[in-house]
Amino acid sequence: MKLYDYHRAPNPRRVRIFLAEKGIEIEKAEIDLGSKQQMETNYKTINSRMSVPMLELDDGNIITESIAICRYFEETQPDPTLFGNNPLDKATVEMWHRRVELEGLMPISDAVRNSVEFFAGRAMAGPIDFVQIPALAERANIRMAFFYNMLNERLNESAYIAGSNFSIADITALVAIDFARIIKQRIGENQTALQCWYDKVSMRPSAVA
Predict the structure, then answer these.
(1) What is the mean pLDDT of residues 64-81?
(2) Could you tell me the fold of the domain covering 2-76?
(3) What CATH number has the domain spanning 87-208?
């Protein structure tokens, strides 16, 4: 089993944190997105989306997309659970994780990919090249302010984003907030609940995975 990874990208980091929380160690292969290694024939042949992360199983099956990979390991090694313990927990984790992706990670990705020079001509990941649209970055910055306020309000009443236990929702939120540093987005001084949560989850050993 092998995980194709890139240490600077947010989505592979989600999987690395998830695996660290589970105590799972697997072989990793670095795909250097900076040098566009994902577009080379050897990799493109097995992953037509030319994305990371990608999990290659021992039987040759391929799983792409970070949360699909996390779901695989949640099923094969359920403890500790990171997607919820019972029907209500699972639905709550799914709800908050989806909110974090839609209101946080996606806008932050839009802001970065539509404003940072490195992504000129590659404003979206995948096999098709797209030019940057500055207006999308501007809109994303507004959406990110809403995202931080949403999390701060939630964390005023909850120890973690989806409830009393650390979950995949916290992993994705941590990754999103750290990724936003590229465009100098920071937690606001008045967002004390969010800052307290951030300090807490950043201290977990998995955060440096």
Answers:
(1) 98
(2) Glutaredoxin (3.40.30)
(3) 1.20.1050.10
